[in-house]
Amino acid sequence: MPKNKKTEWQVGDPPISVVSDQFCNPYPMELMVKRKVKNLSKDHYEVLDPSGNLLLQIDGQAWGFNRKRVMRDPAGFIVLTMRQKGISLKRKWEVHGGESKEREDLLFTVQQSSAMSLKTSVDVFLAENNNVKKSSTCDFHASGGYSNISFKVFKSDALIAGVGVTHKFTWGSFCKGKYNFRVSVNPEVDYAFIIALLVMVDDIENLF
């Protein structure tokens, strides 16, 4: 693990496996995420490698409270399920393996750091550290900004992934719900975890 502040996760650092070891690669990954609204109630994300091969796909509700989004592999098997919890100023999500709702299958919890901020910021608590009301230390932290729908993910002070919009941002594309993300995932970092986090941060930022 990097010991100095403001470093990046590198080759040789221990794997960060949150969803599964199968999503950890020993080399940096550059992914493309395409997002579109399918109809008035649903949106769809596709995760592609540089060759255009489908790696993951996410479907879910584009509107409303208590939203649910499901991540599947290219064959259609469910990897994880993201559920927004209740109505509050600080949005909270619980992520379970597969389709489960059971506590023993909880992977991690994501909660907005602050409801009143010009900068999107979320804290991530792994299953063994998921009591966000009592815990003062998160396992991961992501922060970004409303102006360009981008953010960075940190483990302590080490950068493990970065996300940004790949084209010039326009309110037209924003309102239509169509835009692409460039996702840079550092070596040995679980990219399914990073993509799930992207979807939840995007939900906070675009308010769809």
Question: How many angstroms does the end-to-end distance come to?
Answer: 37 Å
**Percentage of residues in helical conformation:** 10-25%
What structural class do you assign from the helix and strand content?
Answer: mainly beta
Mean pLDDT: 83
Widest sheet: strand ordering: 2-3-4-5-6-7-8-9-10-11-12-13
Radius of gyration: 16 Å
Explain briefly what this protein structure is.
This protein is mainly beta and 208 residues long. The protein is built from 2 helices and 13 strands.
Q: What features would you describe in this structure?
A:
The chain has two helices and 13 strands. It is mainly beta and 208 residues long. The longest helix is centred in the C-terminal third of the chain and has 16 residues, at 191-206.
Structural topology:
Layout: E1 7-8, E2 29-37, E3 42-48, E4 54-61, E5 68-72, E6 78-84, E7 92-97, E8 106-112, E9 121-126, E10 140-145, E11 150-155, E12 158-165, H1 171-176, E13 179-185, H2 191-206
Parallel strand pairs: 1-12
Antiparallel strand pairs: 2-3, 2-13, 3-4, 4-5, 5-6, 6-7, 7-8, 8-9, 9-10, 10-11, 11-12, 12-13
